[in-house]
UniProtKB/TrEMBL annotation:
SUPFAM superfamilies: C-terminal effector domain of the bipartite response regulators, CheY-like. The lineage of its organism: Bacteria, Pseudomonadati, Pseudomonadota, Betaproteobacteria, Burkholderiales. This is DNA-binding response OmpR family regulator. Keywords: DNA-binding, Phosphoprotein, Transcription, Transcription regulation, Two-component regulatory system. PROSITE patterns: OMPR_PHOB, RESPONSE_REGULATORY. Residues 138-235 form the OmpR/PhoB-type domain. The keyword S-adenosyl-L-methionine does not apply. It comes from the Bacteria. CDD domains: trans_reg_C (cd00383). One of its GO terms (molecular function) is DNA binding. Residues 8-126 form the Response regulatory domain.
Length: 242
């Protein structure tokens, strides 16, 4: 039997204690994984050019370069289509999450706001979602406007077109769609997110989801806000979603 190739992950973080902590969490979560650590933009970009990583975990600010991580993500997108990126940064999530979404990063965790379990859950979920990314996408049934493959979080399609969403928003979308027609409470949605378990953060994720749909369909109106309770996916336009 042919031996499966070793999973390789790059951790790009200029703070040594943080780099060591992330590396320890990754190795504990998946024994036998190869973790390469890089501390500057130049050495990270050189490594990305010569290695095919299964995932990249990076900070946005490296040394004095405030947006070095953005440049690295651009290099990843240019050279290795589909390589998942998990951003772990102290930069405000409210500002940078939308930027990372535009760059097609998979998810964003803000430092000091998440625990080890949050990081590990997100890390492993991304690995599982991408382990069969080379497989052909299943065709979308003509009768289903929204298609979500439970094995590949990132393969959600709206009327045959891929929806550009970070992983946390994908999880929220999947939860709403699985319970379509029913109110999904804030408490239920808190179980889906890995950090920022508060109503304001959930509303921001819902806004991100709506914006992503409207990039494909200006008239999208399927997620209904149920005041004081939560949200509901409707198979027919709701007529009142902001």
């Amino acid at each position: 039997m042919k031996e499966a190739p070793m999973t390789k992950v790059a951790v790009i973080e200029d703070d040594l204690p943080t780099s060591q902590q992330l590396t320890e969490w990754i190795r504990a979560a998946r024994p036998g994984i190869q973790v390469d650590t890089w501390f500057t933009r130049d050495e990270a970009e050189a490594a990305i050019a010569r290695e095919a990583y299964d995932m990249v975990v990076l900070d946005i600010e490296l040394g004095r370069e405030r947006n070095a991580g953005i440049a690295i993500i651009n290099a990843i997108n240019k050279g290795h289509q589909g390589t998942p990126v998990l951003v772990v940064s102290a930069m405000p999530a409210a500002i940078y999450r939308s930027i990372m979404k535009a760059l097609d990063a998979w998810d964003y965790l803000q430092k000091t706001t998440f625990a080890e379990s949050d990081f590990v859950d997100t890390f492993l979920e991304i690995l599982r979602a991408t382990r069969d990314r080379g497989a052909a996408e299943a065709p979308t049934p003509a009768s289903d406007e929204l298609s979500i493959d439970p094995l590949r979080q990132r393969s959600a399609l709206w009327r045959g077109k891929r929806i550009n969403l970070p992983l946390t928003a994908q999880r929220i979308l999947a939860t709403l769609y699985q319970q379509r027609g029913q109110v999904v409470s804030y408490d239920d949605l808190f179980e889906v997110v890995k950090s920022g378990r508060n109503r304001d953060n959930i509303r921001k994720h819902i806004s991100t989801i709506r914006e992503a749909f409207r990039e494909l369909d200006e008239g999208f109106d399927r997620i209904e806000n149920i005041p004081m309770r939560g949200f509901r996916w409707s198979d027919a336009p709701t007529g009142n979603a902001p």
